[in-house]
Amino acid sequence: QTSPLRALRGRLLWFVADPRDVGEAAHRYVADGVLVIEGGVIRAVGPAEAILPTLPAGAEIIDHHPHLIMPGFIDAHLHMPQTQVIASYGAQLMDWLNRYTFVEEQRLAQQGHPEKLATFLLDELLANGTTTAVIYCSVHPQSAQALFAESERRNTRMIAGKVMMDRNAPEALTDTAQSSYADSKALIERWHGRGRQLYAITPRFVVTSTPEQMEAAGRLAAEHPDCHVQTHINENRAEIALANELYPEPGDYAGIYQHYGLLGPRSLLGHCIHMTDREWRRFAETGSVAVFCPTSNLFLGSGLFDWARARAEGVPVAVATDIGGGTSYSMLRTMSEAYKVLQLQGQSLSAFAALHAITLGNAKALKLDHLIGSLEPGHEADVVVLDAGAQRAMAHRLETARDLAEELFVLVTLGDERNVVATYVMGERTNPPSFSGGA
Ligand code: GUN
Ligand code: ZN
Asked: Which residues form the Amidohydrolase-related domain (predicted)?
């Protein structure tokens, strides 16, 4: 029903390396560029003057000039059951989990509720230009089922899993080592690699898993080495004390996950704020990924993630919203807060480094950079179109911007979903319903 070739014209920006490693050579910018999409995949990219003459007569050309065209954003950690927990007042991690999160997550047992949340979440992500996310569902297998079904309907590339937790949570929210293994396994068989969907084995954190369940999670990871593992670590002092009390032998929090075979290059560990030297080494040795969640770490009063240390240790870093400990769905907002977290530690983050992080950087951390996070030919055509001047205060500020770096820094510092002009998934423009008031 669509023309075989679709071309997007505008100001193209993407990355081929990390700007912190190679500076200006890390990005590609084409002021009048064309991106050619065929069958949902990028076929060609380059200056309009070179590409346009090569297009067949029937090709559809969508002109987004003067807007920026970038790879869709990637969010490496968020919680679907917490879309109605976001902005809950006055608590740090353990109280916040008990007072708000574990109460709300029980509602996913209700008929139709997971479907409602999945629809909302994917609308909201796409409205923010996020085309791939790594998602915690609830303990209920039907929560992951609902998320994957909705993602498949939209053909988005999502990575998700049912939470495994069998202690230190309300009865209604616990599974068992056996049932969590069986339910996760069934979901992997049904969804992992089906279309664009990918499964993440999801033990919530050591506090809510018995040794039997940790062992079951490790067994799943060993049996499905191409699945991701996602969990939490070293977020909050009280949490860390409890984790080490429950599992004293390994000597540190990372050692507990390592003992159960849960560290590795596809392991995504949220927070990593209060890390010991030995824990950084465990991450580096196993290639485990530290996930930086700036708005959440500030909102829950957890602490400041040390990105320079992670880089120095050779530990890969992904960035994420951590909805609903986090306070924004926007990866632009997230990077604006990341900048402030780093400022407090005397570290910096250029606009190029920030935009790299939420595209190619996260794709690499997820080991999906051959598929997403780039406008290079062969990649899936998940694309966000951005207008840095969409907000009045931003247009006003841009009157004095002298170059691309300055424009992008304004975009990263002040931008949010209002700056997203369009989001394409596999070359198809998505039309999330525009919000027009409360229920
Ligand atoms: N640690 C264990 N569960 C959670 C969660 O839902 N959110 C955050 N921020 N940390 C956690
Ligand atoms: Zn989390």
From this structure: 69-428
